[in-house]
Inverse folding.
């Protein structure tokens, strides 16, 4: 997969049996920041899944997620989302507050996933 003209990186790459997914923002398909707490979290997951799909991966392949949020109080909603999306054993996760994200987004999620054979 080649990177788009807009961004100088790949949406996802594979190496060593793993897929590494670039950060996916809480934006809609038009690149507009999604308002609301859970809608923003869900938009970031949707964009992450789109990136993962470029290397043949699915959400069930994810083994590690990192959430970057502009409001650490989103943690409760992120926990609810995590429980809704993943069964035991759930992926490892890191949850960090950052001062700002591109395009006015409030959430960015990157991932590591098992590569499908």
């Amino acid at each position: 997969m080649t990177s788009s003209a807009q961004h100088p990186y790949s949406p996802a790459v594979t190496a060593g049996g793993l897929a590494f997914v670039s950060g996916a923002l809480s934006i809609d398909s038009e690149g507009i920041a999604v308002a609301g707490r859970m809608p923003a979290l869900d938009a970031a997951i949707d964009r992450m899944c789109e990136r993962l799909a470029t290397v043949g991966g699915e959400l069930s392949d994810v083994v590690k997620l990192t959430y970057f949020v502009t409001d650490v109080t989103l943690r409760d909603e992120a926990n609810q989302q995590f429980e809704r999306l993943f069964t035991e054993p759930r992926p490892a996760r890191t949850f960090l507050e950052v001062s700002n994200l591109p395009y006015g987004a409030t959430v960015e999620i990157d991932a590591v996933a098992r590569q499908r054979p």
